[in-house]
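Re: that backbone. Tokens:
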């Protein structure tokens, strides 16, 4: 990784109250364009959020997990959950704010909050992407007009229909281990074994393995596989061929990468990326 990529610019969130959802406008949209290596400072709000990237890739840290969000995915964040945005590639970020009064279309009063009490990665359909692109992103209050109300109802319905994606990378509370995990997130192909990683930081493999078990309830290999799968999604969003994705993630061949995906998910990469 180059020194340029390591430097980050930290910016505050845009005043969320300017886009606050209400019972009169239960779904609001916000648009923000940010350059790569920009970090939006930690913040939270009393309503839910759906984070999407129309172009580029963002990384969202919410609670104890981190998520890579390319244009094919969206992240649901419940109210009150502190989150941080890091821009991996120049991105056009479209954010939906969802008021607690929001209801799914024709779902007998079911709400997104009942369905998703925790953070959830969702697939973004072409229709959902287009609907969100046509929502008004101007700040201010007031009531939704008929067109906005129809768009909002359809967007909530598309979210309800969106397939969940089991992608989320747990982060530890232990500061030592967290620094190491964040280093792997930045360059997942750099370390392929726990031994390599331990030598880099001057700790014994046994110590690091024990921390992984106690903090995250998993092994380094299993945790790193989740990191690789998340990065693979962002690479697939660029329409890269399988061989290029495998090479980018440090695999000697596309078949070796395919074997890892099959072992981890029980499905080939083509099905996973689809």
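Recovered sequence:
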């Amino acid at each position: 990784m180059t020194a340029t990529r390591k430097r980050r610019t930290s910016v505050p969130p845009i005043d969320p109250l300017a886009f606050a959802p209400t019972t009169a406008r239960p779904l609001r949209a916000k648009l923000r364009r940010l350059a790569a290596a920009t970090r939006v400072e930690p913040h939270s709000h009393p309503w839910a959020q759906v984070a999407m990237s129309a172009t580029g890739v963002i990384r969202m840290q919410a609670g104890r997990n981190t998520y890579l969000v390319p244009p094919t995915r969206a992240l649901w964040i419940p109210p009150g959950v502190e989150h941080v945005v890091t821009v991996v590639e120049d991105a056009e970020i479209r954010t939906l704010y969802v008021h607690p009064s929001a209801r799914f279309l024709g779902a007998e009063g079911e709400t997104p909050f009942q369905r998703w009490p925790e953070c959830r990665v969702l697939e973004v359909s072409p229709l959902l992407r287009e609907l969100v692109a046509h929502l008004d992103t101007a700040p201010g209050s007031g009531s939704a007009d008929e067109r906005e109300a129809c768009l909002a109802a359809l967007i909530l319905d598309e979210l309800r229909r969106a397939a969940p994606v089991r992608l989320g990378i747990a982060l530890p509370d232990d500061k030592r281990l967290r620094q190491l995990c964040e280093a792997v997130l930045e360059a997942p192909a750099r370390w392929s074994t726990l031994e390599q990683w331990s030598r880099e930081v001057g700790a014994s493999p046994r110590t690091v393995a024990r921390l992984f078990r106690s903090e995250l309830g998993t092994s380094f290999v299993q945790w790193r596989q989740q990191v690789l799968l998340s990065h693979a999604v962002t690479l697939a969003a660029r329409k890269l061929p399988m061989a290029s994705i495998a090479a980018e993630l440090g695999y000697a061949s596309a078949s070796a990468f395919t074997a890892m995906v099959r072992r981890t998910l029980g499905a080939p990469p083509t099905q996973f990326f689809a």
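Residues 20 and 97 are 7 Å apart (CA to CA). The first strand starts at residue 9 and ends at 11.
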